[in-house]
Every structure is written in structure tokens, then in C-alpha cells.
Design a protein that fits this description.
alpha/beta, 9-stranded mixed beta sheet, 3-stranded mixed beta sheet, 11 helices, binds S-adenosylmethionine
Length: 343
Amino acid sequence: MDVGEALRRQALACANLGSPMYAALCERLADDLAAGGPTSVVLAGHEDDPGPSALALRLLGSVHRLVLERRAGALAAYYPSVGGTWEPEAGWLALRALLAEEPDPVREWLDRPPQTNEVGRATALMAGLLSLPWAHPVRLFEIGSSGGLNLLADHFRYVTPDGSVGPAESPVVLDPAWTGALPLREPPPVVERLGSDVMPVDVRTTEGRLTLTAYVWPDQTHRLERLRGAFALADRIPYALRREPAGDLVAGLELVDGATTVLWHSVMWQYLGRDEQDRVRASIDALGARATAAAPFAHVYLEPSRRTPDAEHEFLVWLETWPTGERRVLGASVGHGVPTHVE
Ligand SMILES: C[S@@+](CC[C@H](N)C(=O)[O-])C[C@H]1O[C@@H](n2cnc3c(N)ncnc32)[C@H](O)[C@@H]1O
């Protein structure tokens, strides 16, 4: 797939995922590339990047970072993330001017993989915590944790037409968190929080916050609000984040009497090589074999997956528990996690 085609595919994906702004910009970038405009200068050298490297999102993330840093001149007026109003024609012309006048700053982030931490996906984790068959306190572990924000899931507020879960004053409100059938009750207390990632983001730094904010699509202000709310929580609720591959974290897990050990992950499995996937799975099965009623173990995950080998991929939420031996689809979610439909 060439870069122009990748930009047009990204335009379609952004349209389907609720970002008319990025859908329009990706189309205009593709047209400008084909016409030999400033886009072709900025993307020079990246013509052979593979499709999965998401060059369009690297480029737009880099531009958004310049907007957030107030280094993008007139373009900020069209970015809702900084109080602007999106206008397709004028917005594109302002972006084109930035690419023409400041190609080097825009190119700075083209080699970085987009790094996100999607707070809305906590709906899947919390559906799992509310479905546990035990009332023990929870020790929460996450692989592919990014900034670790979903380790704070019990501090978010989950709103449904039938009631809410979580602190009333939480700065993170997920509404509607769930559709379908989920018992609304107090979740078990979380007594330990540890995440790992090969590229962890320290959200207590300006650089970390800038990184995660820049890759949120600027017209999706609800996602930005959730992220900012989670940053505020991260300032006051301690959790640990390690630079460590998933396989190592899971291999080192132990179960503890009197607590439910929960391993959770979302939209990270596809980034593991086959060997690491097998290693994580083997460690999970070994933990399950050691679990007891006093020291139970649960695996909750939201990953693009299939219900049966021939089915289509969906964003499914899975729950596995030991020693109870349960394994089931809890529900289906959407890419950004809000809402999760509980079955
Ligand atoms: C799409 S992001 C999802 C982040 C977060 N789980 C969420 O849902 O917002 C995928 C994450 O997986 C991490 N990752 C990729 N390979 C990994 C590995 N082998 N071990 C641990 N984390 C990995 C990436 O650095 C990235 O933070």
C-alpha cells in the first residue's frame, strides 16, 4: 500500500470512528501528496513505511503536538482541543501553510509510534471487576499499560440509565458506561496497582501528558476530557509502572491469600510476537492452576478477538477466573471503550 492509499484508508477509519476533522484532513493530505504539495516534502523518505506504522496518525499527532505547544500559528484556531472551531476549508489551508513553512518541526515526531492510553476502555475492566464471584480486595496488574491510567479505574464514575458506579466527584465520567445487564454495585477495593509497558508513559511529566494528548483526535473532546480527568487522578493516587515486556511481568506474578489477583489488558495483544503471546498464556494458565478459593485469580481483557474461529473480529471483553474455571465473553465494546455492551 502506498502512502496516498494509506492516508485515504485512514480517512475512512477516522470517519467511521467519529472524527470528521481527521477524515477530512487525511483526504486533503492525500490530494496534496498526489499533487506534489508540501505534504510530499514533509513525508519524503517515508514512502516505503509499512501500512501498520500508521504514518497518517504519526503526522497528525506531530501536528497536534505543535498546536498544543502553541507552535502551529493560525492552525490552533481550528483545533477544538485548544478551544478552536473546526472548519474544513480554512483548517486545511492553515495545516498546508504549517507544512510548507515548518516542515522540520512536523517531521520530528514521524519516527515515533503513536502512543495512546484510552481511559474509556476502563468500562471493560470494571465490568470484569463487578462480575467477579469473590468480594476479596483486588490486586490489579496491567500489561501494555501505556500511562497506567486504567489502573485507576475504580476512581472513575460509570453512568448508566439505571444508576452509577464510582465516586460522584470523579473527574472521569464514562457515560453511558454500559448497556445491557450488569449488576451495579460497589466494586471490590483495589489494594495494589502495577502496570508494565515496553514504552511506558510517565503522566506525571509534561512530556508524558503531551504525548498522550497529542495522539487523541482533536475534535473528540469527550476523550480529551476523560484523559485530563485521569491525569488529575494520577497526581494523587499512587500506582507503579515498569518498563518491562508483558511476558516478564506475568511470569513474575504471585497469588496472595485474602486477595483476588487480577490481570487486565486492552488493545495490546496484537503487538506481542507469537512467542511472547505463548509465554504470557502459559504463565496465566500456571497461575490459574495455583489459584485457590483463598487466593483466586482472574484475567479480564478487551481485545479485538473472535467468539468462534470463523466469526468476525469484535472488541470483546473476556473474563476468565480460577479456581472456578469460568471462561466467557462478558460483552462487546467499541474501539474507545464507551459504551461496553454487557451480555
Ligand atoms: C494501543 S496501546 C494500548 C494502551 C492501553 N492498554 C490502552 O488500552 O489505552 C498498546 C500498548 O502496548 C504496548 N506494548 C507493545 N508491545 C508490548 C510488549 N511486548 N509488552 C508490553 N507492552 C507492550 C505499547 O507500548 C502500547 O503502550
